Amino acid sequence: MKKALITGVTGQDGSYLSEFLLEQGYEVHGMVRRCSSQNFSRIEHIKDKIALHQADLLDQSSLEALVRDVQPDEVYNLAAMSFVPASWTQPIMTSDFTGLGVTRMLEAIRLVKPSAKFYQASSSEMFGKVKSEPQNEQTPFHPRSPYGVSKVYGHFITVNYRESYNIYGCSGILFNHESPRRGIEFVTRKITDAVARIKLGVQDKLFLGNLDACRDWGFAGDYVKAMWLMLQQDQPDDFVVATGKKHSVREFVSLAFDRVGLNYEKYVEIDPKFYRPAEVCTLCGDASKAKRVLNWEPDVDFNQLVNMMVDADLQSLQLNAETADYSQNTQTGWECGDDANFVVYATIPARLFNYFKNASGHRVIARRRRA
């Protein structure tokens, strides 16, 4: 049985990759940082099937101990300070974690288990101010954020260890990939979460920055298969992973609001604070090499992705509204329960009554609370 070690195992990509590798019959090990609290929500359903280890990309000795203990056949380095806007306010930490952290992991592999195959999560943000479109493996990099600069370093140090020490090191230059598991701070999830809240009447407006920025968006669940395929080849190489189709933030917003029958123009407002100091206006990937060599293509298209994310946020908020106590947030509420006898009660704002009465996935009835 092959052993895989995943850094960033609790993140969006780490959770999907863990699921995929378990399906392939792998023994999966995940690295988590030492901290007072951990968020395991994305891997809660498989937590009993994977082994978690404490280590840190900022601590060389912990990485060497981790590789020594696990003895992995494959290492997937997904951990990073990955929220681009925050990289301007925390550039040094971003560089240390997202850039030098790659070197520390590669050095741990070189010293302890040089036969292990290594996957580095590179990013389309490395292209930044693009010179040509679409972008492929030969397109020059011109990063426009501390995050993008750090990813370029991580990319080339992987190439350097491959060429200097014969380490099997691959970089996947992944374009934007989303899912219902995406963090709420990312614009796609911010949009779909807000759409659900506006539909339910618990939010009035959605504030965004540049609606004309264009990205090549795909589904994270599709992209983790490409990561794995890179490490199954005879020789290591780097690959762009993308859909080859770009869409604007405006298109994403419009489609998300369409999903719930609303016109986005009534709810979206522009706030200059959400503009980047140095904007990346457009990114679109050419994944023809991945298709030719890895036989990889995405399954989920843009419309399916947006609908999937909106539906998931609606379902989550519905569930929360049906089970949570909102009595502290409203003076007028409704009692909700099952059709027969109100076994389960929750207090919800009166403005949600019509929605749950008419559009809930399963029938929820409500009535005025008695004095």
What does this structure look like?
The protein is α/β, with parallel strands linked by helices and 371 residues long. The protein is 38% helix and 16% strand. It has 11 helices and 16 strands. Helix 1 links the parallel strand 1 (3-7) and strand 2. The longest helix is centred in the first third of the chain and has 22 residues, at 91-112. It is globular. The termini are far apart.
Quote the distance from N terminus to C terminus.
63 Å
Main β-sheet: number of strands, strand sense, barrel status?
A: 7 strands, parallel
SSE ordering: EHEEHEHHEHEEHEEEHEEHEHHEEHE
Strand order of the largest sheet: 3-2-1-4-5-6-11
Low-confidence stretches: 324-371
Number of beta strands = 16
SS-based class: alpha/beta
Number of helices: 11
Percent of sequence in beta strands: 15-25%
Mean pLDDT rating: 86
- Our Rg estimate from Cα atoms comes to 22 Å
Helicity, as a percent range: 25-40%
Structural shape: globular
Any chance you could write out the topology, listing elements then pairs?
Layout: E1 3-7, H1 12-23, E2 27-32, E3 51-54, H2 60-70, E4 74-77, H3 86-89, H4 91-112, E5 117-123, H5 146-165, E6 169-174, E7 177-178, H6 187-200, E8 206-208, E9 214-215, E10 218-219, H7 220-230, E11 239-241, E12 247-248, H8 249-259, E13 268-270, H9 288-294, H10 302-323, E14 333-337, E15 347-349, H11 353-359, E16 365-368
Parallel strand pairs: 1-2, 1-4, 2-3, 4-5, 5-6, 6-11, 7-10, 8-13
Antiparallel strand pairs: 9-12, 14-15, 14-16
